[in-house]
Specification:
Helices cover 48% and strands 20% of the residues. With 141 residues, it is α+β, with helices and mostly antiparallel strands. The strands form two sheets. A three-stranded mixed sheet has the order 1-2-3. Strands 4-5 form a two-stranded antiparallel ribbon. The protein is elongated. The two termini are 33 Å apart.
Amino acid sequence: MRVAEILRKKGSSVLTLPSAATVAQLLECLDDHKIGAVVVVDDDKVVGIVSERDIVHHLRAGRDQTSALSEIMSADVHVVTTQDDLDQLATIMTERRLRHLPVVEDGVLKGIVSIGDVVKTRLDALSAERDHLEDYLRRAP
């Protein structure tokens, strides 16, 4: 299965904030939308990603909520394309300890895929396979 199919099922909506936004604005966005990460976009270009983990490190260091996202975001963003395979995603996420990957095509943000999306997709595929096998066994002579 490809990333495009995951986005087709879950939707391509992705929340973004500019790098000048504050940690307080980020916290509000994460809480309001019940999400774990936001893609940081300036001038329609992905410049970073910031997650709950980044906030914890920031606040533990004694910094306040007025800091700009540019100070806490991960600027080295690993992105995937709509043509990447689910197994590739799982490997990347596991090896790099990432829970969110922005989907970018030709420099344009197309969506975001979370580890939860990968797990759900795999579970759905296993369930469908199980159902198929059970049906096959019921029809066997």
